[in-house]
Write a structure and sequence with these properties.
single chain, 23% helix, 2,3-Dihydroxybiphenyl 1,2-Dioxygenase, domain 1, globular, five-stranded antiparallel sheet
């Protein structure tokens, strides 16, 4: 499946550049797995995106009706881009999609977590129509999480942001430095969304890397103003 193959290659290029990646990632040409102490959080292979070893969640990010509009990634430019950014770690992977009943979605994933060492956390969203959740173990704050972004609406719908798969990395660079590099390698005005916190500045920015049959792939980049440890310990609230 083109989407899965692209995601695997992107994780391999982006996540392995981080200083903290090797402890949590298992990578091959055909799969990418995120784990902690042999417990699997997410496994991406050529056929599925398997959460907690229990459920293929790839169907949740396929748009209905399917949109055959696609855009390709220039992997040569992406690799050059990665050679010039100072990646600290993989912060999280995640998916985003529309739902007519967010509470039902939430309860479904709570059920999947039963019997696993992982917990479900929520971060307050900046959008009244969205809720942001993370699966993982926040006590080990360097461990990457898996994000679920639910947007209230029809069961499934498609916008420039929905549905999507995201890869999010922490860096040691300022927003201005990252913008200069994205302008150079990923296209002018790459960032479509920024989290700008008063008195702190831009801590995170996201841009679209590709659109594969209607499923978008987004790259999030934390700046040197992002405080991942603080976010894990003080912003995320267990659900």
């Amino acid at each position: 499946m083109e989407l899965n193959q692209t995601i695997i290659r992107l994780i391999s290029i982006l996540a392995t550049g981080g200083k903290k990646a090797d402890r949590f990632l298992s990578l091959s040409d055909k799969s990418a797995s995120l784990h902690l102490n042999k417990e699997s959080l997410i496994d991406v292979n050529e056929e599925s995106i398997l959460l907690l070893g229990k459920e293929d969640i790839s169907q949740r990010i396929f748009p209905v009706p399917e949109n055959k509009v696609s855009s390709c990634i220039d992997f040569n430019k992406l690799e050059k881009f990665c050679s010039e950014i100072d990646i600290v770690r993989l912060n999280h992977l995640g998916i985003s999609y529309g739902s007519s009943n967010i509470e039902m979605e939430l309860n479904h994933f709570k059920g999947l977590l039963s019997g696993s060492p992982f917990k479900l956390y929520e971060e307050k969203s900046d959008n009244s129509n969205q809720r942001w959740f993370f699966i993982g173990i926040k006590e080990n704050w360097e461990y990457p999480l898996f994000e679920l972004v639910f947007t209230q609406g029809k069961d499934k719908f498609s916008t420039d942001w929905i549905p999507h798969f995201q890869i999010d990395i922490d860096t040691n660079q300022s927003f201005e430095e990252l913008k200069a590099l994205t302008d150079k390698y990923l296209g002018q005005n790459f960032f479509g969304w920024e989290l700008d916190i008063p008195k702190i500045g831009v801590v995170l920015a996201m841009g679209k890397l590709a659109n594969i049959d209607g499923t978008k792939i987004y790259l999030g980049m934390g700046t040197n103003r992002r405080r991942t440890e603080y976010h894990r310990k003080h912003i995320l609230v267990e659900v």
